[in-house]
Automatic annotation (TrEMBL), chain A:
Protein family: Belongs to the metaxin family.
This protein's name: Mitochondrial outer membrane transport complex Sam37/metaxin N-terminal domain-containing protein
GO terms of biological process kind: mitochondrion organization; protein transport
Keywords assigned by UniProt, alphabetized: Membrane, Mitochondrion, Mitochondrion outer membrane, Protein transport, Transmembrane, Transmembrane helix, Transport
Domain (Metaxin glutathione S-transferase) ranges: 219-278
TrEMBL record, chain B:
GO biological process, one term: mitochondrion organization
Phylogenetic classification of the source organism: Eukaryota, Fungi, Dikarya, Basidiomycota, Agaricomycotina
This protein's name: Metaxin glutathione S-transferase domain-containing protein
Segments forming a coiled coil: none
Native source species: Trametes coccinea (strain BRFM310)
PANTHER family xrefs: METAXIN RELATED, METAXIN-2
Length: 409, 303
């Protein structure tokens, strides 16, 4: 949850939702981000703004999407939904459901989140063609220069544990770049064709048919549940389950993937495709304005290179969220005033000290040329005589003069 | 060798080889002898209190134990002296069955049974049980198709949210010996259970290689609480989950999770379940039924 326990009166009142950036037709690159956006748009239209940021490290829990309101923050889709439910102006999407139906809804949301989420991640991150042609270029375009070279591979690696556990991971360990005919000639001898290292590794064989079967089983369940209604549960307004399901469908349908394994299964269920479109059109009616967006600069991109352990509860919200508000600008102005005032004041005091308490004598060629500061300063121990050398070549004759003076003595 | 064209060893070479005679070592008697398997034996990880209980402490093993018991099998032996590395795919539970109970075996194979039996991994257990007590219908024991679809949702709720909370609060052994010993029952890591990959400990863009996970503990606990409250709401006062007339696989799964939660050392987990009286009462009732189907195998040590 990572929610701040401070009062909401501190800081600005604007809700800012931070998401993965848009990519071509998609509202956001990640299904959870799309779901958060749709949920907020349905529950709190016009009360929030969107910030696209491609840096998950800005979030308190390290994951996007996250939401800030002044000094509050909520990270992760379930926390965002819980936060919005408690907001006084929010429309309750699950109103009108009996307690039994609400309990069933919780289970179905978990089902969609895990099963459908796994299938979408499989399409984006595991299938090699999709990764090379669509996902990796998209991530590279969103990230700035130092991060774009290593962060996409890390993101892909982070999905490996889960997808391997559900047997949806099929990434070749060895890059198959060399075709078998070309063998490098090393010292005149043909390099031996090494046998496949996977042959002795008891890996479960990956079967594309199994993936399609799994997708069809999931879609069958939800197709039966939808029936001929516009939304699940037969309501007039989308529920949380509709939002989550449509978010995943939107990512699959509107992202042109070269290997449409699951998408082709989805398009064979026209009612589910229509459901996705109707949820999107309910959330964003044709003439309604999109919530105000601001693109975040990568001010801290170099700072992110430094490994910084995370504190478990950090009440500090994102810096950019505070910048916009008039109260924050007022505070900033006062700080600036005080800062520059202090510097100016200290310079003034040191100048006054130099002028009135200290006399500086300029010596050139052994003669006193000028005297700055207190003229009638007595030769007391208060006085500190400083010799200032002229810039340039005067140093040497003076040194010689001193040396002569010393030699004469 | 008997062919007239075979080459024979020349005499000097034979004398030389006679200096190195072949010596056959006597048979070594090992103290561990495999006893012939006469009744189906389930290999599980050890129970919470090995002297007093036969129910395993691991959720996976307990799930299959409950499945066997609730499908109507009885007098199944259990043993917990097999280490995890000795199991198929390094995952317990395994079911060791005599050959004559295998549904797909031919009669010749069944006759040649010398007590070795067949070791089945966990995913083949339902097929075996179907062979024993008769196959289940297309609805898998649920009241209707809608109930069966709903059961998929409950399964993923339990295996996702509730399992994540259990894995998070599992006590990690910190003794020096456990660091040295290579055989440890490694629990399923958290990254495989949570649906969104957790962030690495120092951030994804740091210069250090990825290490550790920054787990969103509050989110997991909040999802767990919602899961338990919706579970309790759905059970209501029914005898079996989703209003089925007879126990199903979902009941076995729910029982396994509830039993492990109630025996866990973590106070917050246990409290959520003990607050719900109907869940506690249900678990107690099913526990006695499950326990009655198993008997522990006496481990006999050969002198």
């Amino acid at each position: 949850m990572s929610e701040s326990k401070l009062s909401p009166l501190l800081g600005s009142r604007d809700i800012v939702l931070h998401l993965w950036p848009k990519h071509k037709d998609l509202l956001s690159f990640d299904p959870a981000s799309v779901a958060a956006l749709l949920y907020l748009q349905l529950a709190l239209p016009g009360h929030f703004s969107v910030a696209y940021c491609a840096n998950p490290d800005l979030s308190p829990s390290g994951q996007l999407p996250f939401l800030t309101q002044g000094l509050y923050h909520a990270s992760g889709l379930s926390s965002i939904i819980a936060f919005v439910r408690r907001h006084p102006n929010a429309r309750n999407l699950d109103a009108g459901l009996s307690p039994l139906e609400t309990a069933q809804l919780t289970a179905r949301i978990a089902h969609v989140d895990s099963c459908y989420g796994d299938l979408v991640n499989h399409m984006l991150y595991s299938l090699q063609e999709n990764w090379i042609d669509v996902t990796r270029p998209a991530l590279i375009s969103m990230l700035p220069v130092p991060q774009r070279y290593y962060v996409p591979a890390r993101i892909r690696e982070s999905h490996k544990a889960r997808l391997e556990a559900v047997e949806l991971w099929d990434v070749p360990e060895v890059e198959e770049e060399e075709p078998e005919e070309q063998r490098r000639v090393v010292f005149g001898k043909r390099r031996k064709h090494r046998p496949d290292p996977e042959a002795h590794h008891f890996k479960k064989t990956f079967n594309r048919e199994q993936v399609v079967e799994r997708a069809r089983a999931l879609f069958d369940v939800y197709d039966r549940m939808l029936g001929d209604d516009r939304f699940f549960m037969g309501n007039e307004w989308p529920t949380t389950l509709d939002v989550l399901f449509a978010a995943h469908s939107h990512v699959l349908l509107d992202l042109q993937l070269p290997d449409p394994l699951v998408t082709s299964a989805l398009t064979s269920y026209p009612r589910l495709v229509a459901h996705c479109r109707s949820v999107l059109s309910t959330a964003f009616p044709p003439n309604s304005p999109f919530p105000p967006t601001h693109q975040q600069g990568w001010l801290s991109s170099l700072r992110c290179l430094i490994p910084w352990p995370r504190t478990p509860t950090s009440h500090r919200s994102n810096h950019a969220a505070l910048e916009g508000s008039p109260e924050a600008r007022e505070i900033e102005r006062r700080y600036k005033l005080w800062r520059w005032g202090f510097i100016a004041g200290s310079l003034l005091v040191s100048a006054a000290y130099v002028l009135y308490a200290v006399s500086i004598v300029l010596v050139k060629d052994g003669d006193v040329v000028a005297r700055i500061g207190a003229d009638d300063a007595p030769d007391d121990d208060d006085e500190s005589e400083e010799e200032e050398d002229e810039v340039g070549g005067e140093g040497e004759p003076e040194a010689e003069a001193d040396a002569d003076a010393a030699a004469e003595e | 060798m008997a062919s007239p064209f075979a080459l024979s060893l020349p005499q000097p070479l034979r004398h030389f080889f006679n200096l190195f005679p072949l010596y056959t070592h006597p048979v070594i008697d090992s103290p561990d002898k495999a006893r012939p398997v006469t009744s189906p034996t389930l290999w599980i990880s050890p129970p919470f209190s090995p002297d007093a209980d036969v129910l395993s402490s691991d959720v996976e093993c307990l799930k299959w134990q409950a499945y066997l018991a609730l499908r109507g099998l009885s007098d199944v032996a259990v043993r917990w002296d097999v280490a995890v590395d000795g199991a198929l795919d390094n995952r317990l539970p395994n079911l060791h069955v005599p050959l004559k109970t295998l549904p797909g075996a031919s009669p010749d194979v069944k006759q040649q049974d010398d007590g070795e039996g067949e070791l089945l991994p966990a995913h083949l257990i339902p097929e075996w049980v179907d062979g024993q007590v008769g196959g289940s219908d297309a609805l898998e024991g649920y009241a209707s198709e809608a109930a069966r679809d709903e059961s998929r949702a409950w399964v993923s709720l339990l295996e996702g949210n509730v399992h994540a909370a259990l894995v998070l609060h599992q006590p990690t052994s910190t003794s020096f010996l456990s660091l040295l010993s290579p055989y440890q029952n490694k629990p399923r890591p958290l990254e495989a259970v949570v649906s969104h990959p957790p962030a690495p400990l120092f951030g994804i863009s740091s210069l250090l290689p990825l290490y550790g996970t920054h787990v969103n503990v509050d989110a997991i606990e909040q999802q767990y609480k919602e899961a338990i409250s919706s579970l309790s709401e759905r059970l209501g006062t029914d005898k079996w989950f989703l209003g089925s007339s007879s126990p199903t696989a979902l009941d076995a799964l729910v029982f396994a999770y509830l039993h492990c939660i109630l025996h866990s050392k973590e106070h917050t987990l246990r409290f959520e379940v003990t607050r719900r009286v109907n869940l506690v009462a249900w678990e107690r009732r099913v526990q006695s039924q499950v326990r009655g189907a198993f008997r522990p195998v006496e481990v006999v040590r050969q002198p």
